[in-house]
Design brief:
18 helices, 5-stranded antiparallel beta sheet, alpha+beta, 18 strands, 6-stranded mixed beta sheet
């Protein structure tokens, strides 16, 4: 949710204060309530506050909660008991371990809020515990403790109903580990680990199992997993959209089949995805929601998480726009039902004033007194309508209790709804926010005046401390280096004296690297961190280069700098702000063409045609600083059939931000016409 609502999340800070909470928790007088199987919990919480560095200053409250959840899990090395009385020993549930994969995957985008030591602890814990399994057999379901690498026997519909509260408790949702395995695969690749293929292979095997074994017509395979349903479909879709070459055959068809079944269950007054259309479990009720059974099942988490399933599937159905539209309608109807568009006209929250001010009616009765103690927590979801209410709104309500897993599903559902507003939705977009924007490898005069420039094009400050450079050069940015503000650039240089002599003083130099940038290509320049992550690589071989000019990342890709020596700490481009077809110089040349060729502040230099040799040579002046405006040379012999001339055969910088492009034809028609095309 943070990744899809960064601006809002970043504005909510300060309500969670690590130092104040640490002091309160470590106090001997802390009022601890021991409940259920929570033995040693106070000790484990105190270990969290003692053993881990705090989130960094300004950390959004949402991410401070992530820090607490992961840190507390690592402070419980033996795991914990299931609170609902299952006969399982203490262990760390596979779905709990999987939380870590999201954090590690998103690290490039989150590292400004957490110390490097916390990432290292999470990584080491994750890889050490990921494969831990009880050794599963169908005959040992009571001891079922799968790893995220396993295909859990309890995924099989044949096991449903034969195990305590299964499948409706959501602890064994089919495919819940597909997406975490894919994320951990990317983390392992980013760190250069030798076991990366293990996680991809697990995701492939689990996906293939779902394709081969799950029948969407059985509602227990989908809605039957309650608040955990949202973990499967987003994983399948992520696999298909982001790694299609590795995804098993038949995945796209399996997703569309799911969509067809869900749509078929939504044709009703409420546009509500029902549990079933016939009495599949022979209990005498055609259920709209989970069967009531003795547990009196509620399903607010299922409603809250369903948008993630429906919208993810919709993103794979560009060939079926009507299905996409219906899935979007169903997503909204699930949230509408959660907050009051249902036969009870009542929203899920028991205290709407704590987080849901637009909900008109509180859910009753208010649950109080044990286990979660969430009745006073902001944002707590409580319950929802059951099947009986769609037939008789006066029927008794189902079980009412706030549960963090309901809110986890809500967060995922909201994240996918936010992502769906984008033209190219990607809810797990977590890019590294910095770019290497300029490299001067072959300065003229002062040969040691080499530099590398970093730029922060994002709208958030970015932590520099702990970043590392490798390749031809080596440098680690010291901890405590001030964050790089949005839009700002900084420099690391080879030699301070030489750099100052060539470029002057007062520029944003943050350090001095060792090594020598190869003049032309050299080893790829890599930017990573002290934990061994590799965030970006600049493969300099093949990049444009010219003695005395820097290599600059412009708006259209890498190019040589407009001026000798580059523009360290500054901007090397000029943005066109006029009217493309205007003629502010009154010289008959459209302003956009003028900008692309020389700049509107200079006399226009028209292309030159030379037919003195056996062919035709055309020389075009190009304003290097105008990289916001692609420029192309076109030719024809009839003023109708224009063709692109392609790339110039040579590029010759002429200084003062101009360069000369040379095009040649060994044979050219007569007549021979050329024109320039600029795009904005």
């Amino acid at each position: 949710l943070h990744l899809n609502a960064r601006n809002e999340s970043n504005q909510k800070t300060g309500q969670i204060n690590f130092a104040n909470e640490k002091a309160a928790i470590l106090s001997p007088s802390f009022p601890y309530i021991n409940e259920g199987n929570a033995d040693n919990l106070l000790t484990e919480i105190r270990n969290y506050y003692t053993n881990f560095e705090a989130p960094l200053p300004g950390c959004p409250d949402a991410l401070a909660v992530v820090h607490f959840g992961l840190g507390l899990t690592m402070s419980q090395p033996d795991g914990n008991y299931d609170w609902s009385g299952d006969p399982l020993p203490k262990h760390i549930h596979s779905q709990t371990r999987e939380w870590f994969a999201w954090f590690l995957y998103a690290w490039p985008s989150l590292r400004s809020h957490f110390p490097d030591s916390f990432y290292a602890a999470c990584r080491d814990f994750t890889f050490a515990n990921w494969s831990a399994s009880s050794g599963l057999t169908d005959a040992d379901l009571a001891n079922n403790r799968p790893s995220p690498l396993d295909i859990d026997p309890l995924w099989a519909p044949s096991s449903y109903g034969g195990h305590n509260k299964h499948p409706f408790k959501g602890r064994h949702a089919p495919g819940h580990s597909i997406l975490p395995n894919l994320l951990l695969w990317q983390v392992a690749l980013r760190e250069g680990r030798s076991d990366a293929a293990t996680y991809l292979a697990a995701a492939q095997a689990q996906t293939q199992w779902i394709i081969d074994n799950l029948d969407w017509a059985d509602p227990r395979t989908t809605k039957g997993h309650r608040m955990s349903e949202h973990k499967m479909m987003p994983g399948l879709v992520h696999f298909l959209r982001n790694h299609p070459a590795e995804a098993p055959a038949g995945l796209a068809a399996k997703i569309e089949q799911w969509a067809d079944v869900m749509i078929s269950r939504s044709g009703n007054l409420w546009d509500f995805r029902r549990y079933e259309l016939t009495d599949t479990d022979n209990d005498g009720v055609v259920d709209w929601t989970l069967p009531k059974q003795s547990a009196n099942w509620n399903e607010p988490g299922n409603l809250a998480g369903f948008p993630a399933c429906a919208l993810a599937a919709a993103w794979t159905l560009d060939h079926a726009p009507a299905k996409q539209q219906r899935l979007r309608e169903m997503s909204q109807s699930a949230i509408d039902c959660l907050f009051g568009r249902n036969p009870l006209n009542t929203g899920s929250a028991s205290r709407a004033q704590l987080g849901f001010p637009d909900q008109e009616t509180n859910w009753t009765p208010l649950f109080t007194g044990r286990v979660g103690f969430l009745e006073n927590a902001r944002g707590s979801l409580t319950s929802g309508p059951g099947s009986e209410h769609f037939y008789n709104p006066a029927a008794a309500k189902r079980y009412s209790e706030g549960w963090t897993n309901f809110n986890a599903a809500f967060n995922v559902g909201m994240a996918y709804m936010l992502a769906d507003q984008s033209a190219s939705p990607e809810p797990l977009d977590a890019p590294f926010p910095l770019v290497v924007s300029e490299i001067l490898a072959q300065p003229l005069g002062e040969s040691l005046a080499e530099f590398i420039e970093l730029h922060n094009p994002s709208n958030e400050p970015v932590r520099l401390g702990g970043l590392t450079f490798s390749g031809d050069v080596s440098f680690t940015i010291p901890a405590g280096t001030p964050d790089l503000a949005p839009g700002v650039r900084c420099l690391i240089v080879r030699d301070l004296t030489a750099f100052a002599s060539a470029h002057g003083t007062g520029l944003p130099v943050i350090g001095v690297f060792t090594g020598d940038l190869d003049d032309v290509a050299g080893t790829a320049l890599k930017l990573g961190d002290v934990n061994g992550n590799s965030f970006l690589t600049v493969a300099r071989a093949g990049l444009p280069s010219s003695p005395g000019h820097s290599q600059t990342l412009g708006q259209s890709g890498w190019r040589i700098s407009a001026n000798l020596g580059g523009s360290p700490g500054g901007i090397d481009s000029i943005t066109f702000l006029g009217t493309p077809t205007g003629d502010s110089n009154h010289d008959g040349i459209p302003d956009l063409i003028h900008h692309a060729v020389t700049g509107t502040d200079r006399t226009y230099l028209a292309p030159q045609i030379d037919r003195s040799g056996p062919g035709v040579v055309v020389r075009v002046t190009r304003n290097l600083a105008a990289d916001d405006t692609p420029l192309a040379l076109e030719w024809c012999n009839d003023l109708v059939s224009w063709q692109d001339a392609g790339s110039p055969v040579s590029v010759n910088p002429s200084g003062d931000r101009l360069t000369e492009w040379i095009f040649s034809w060994l044979e050219a028609p007569d007549p021979f016409f050329i024109r320039l095309r600029a795009r904005h």
